[in-house]
Amino acid sequence: MRRNSHPKAVNALLIVDVQYDFIDGSLALKNCPSQHQGEQVIPMINKLLKDIHFDVVVYTQDWHTHDHISFFDNLHLRAHLLAKDSKQAHELNVFDTAIFLLDDPRPLRVEQILWPAHCIQHTHGAELHKDLNIIKPTKTRKIINLLKGYDSNIDSYSAFWDNMKIRETELHSKLKAHNVSQVFIVGIATDVCVYFTALHALENGYKTYLIQDACRGVDETNINLRLDELKGRHCSVIQTADVKDLI
Ligand SMILES: [Zn+2]
């Protein structure tokens, strides 16, 4: 047995949303307050895939319909559904939060950040970046491809749940089927989809590691708040160099 090893741990790498639109497309991090370079996660993730044997590797993709609620440009489709205490259509700008009252079929109060249109199904912007290593399954390594955010009316930042926690994705059941006990999370964006994925991984009982130097985010202040919150919930925020001692 190797020193520092966890002999019974089954390890999954969750690679969140390494898609063109977040790197050099319509919602590129370099145009967000952080001005992060999203492509910088790619060599870090590729090195992890090369150096570390993960039992399960998950690639997630934001995968929106044209009429998705999260797009500022679609606000006119649901302007009549804005709550009375929401900013109204003429007051709302991109990156603002709107509050919609939907029927799903029961009444739902949906708070939604209005993003630039991004990751529309079957477009280039929704593809995984070509430089990201897409590895093949082997006898000892499962691959899971997970699409999220395809409900027009409810966004899905997390890879486990939609934003209203109404519908669970298949991720938890698939990880359980492979007896995964530890998840390592990398990708985009630290303070949005990575954060919510880590939060729900913790809730689902996985030993959860967020690999900070293999993530990039939207806003530095939010990133720090989110990381502090995760640490408070016993998520381990680590660096890529730390991973080999944890597997
Ligand atoms: Zn999205």
From TrEMBL:
<comment type="pathway">
    <text>Cofactor biosynthesis; nicotinate biosynthesis; nicotinate from nicotinamide: step 1/1.</text>
</comment>
<dbReference type="InterPro" id="IPR036380">
    <property type="entry name" value="Isochorismatase-like_sf"/>
</dbReference>
<feature type="domain" description="Isochorismatase-like">
    <location>
        <begin position="12"/>
        <end position="241"/>
    </location>
</feature>
<dbReference type="InterPro" id="IPR000868">
    <property type="entry name" value="Isochorismatase-like_dom"/>
</dbReference>
<comment type="similarity">
    <text>Belongs to the isochorismatase family.</text>
</comment>
<keyword id="KW-0662">Pyridine nucleotide biosynthesis</keyword>
<dbReference type="GO" id="GO:0046872">
    <property type="term" value="F:metal ion binding"/>
</dbReference>
<protein>
    <recommendedName>
        <fullName>nicotinamidase</fullName>
        <ecNumber>3.5.1.19</ecNumber>
    </recommendedName>
</protein>
<dbReference type="GO" id="GO:0008936">
    <property type="term" value="F:nicotinamidase activity"/>
</dbReference>
<dbReference type="Pfam" id="PF00857">
    <property type="entry name" value="Isochorismatase"/>
</dbReference>
<dbReference type="InterPro" id="IPR052347">
    <property type="entry name" value="Isochorismatase_Nicotinamidase"/>
</dbReference>
<keyword id="KW-0479">Metal-binding</keyword>
<dbReference type="GO" id="GO:0019363">
    <property type="term" value="P:pyridine nucleotide biosynthetic process"/>
</dbReference>
<keyword id="KW-0378">Hydrolase</keyword>
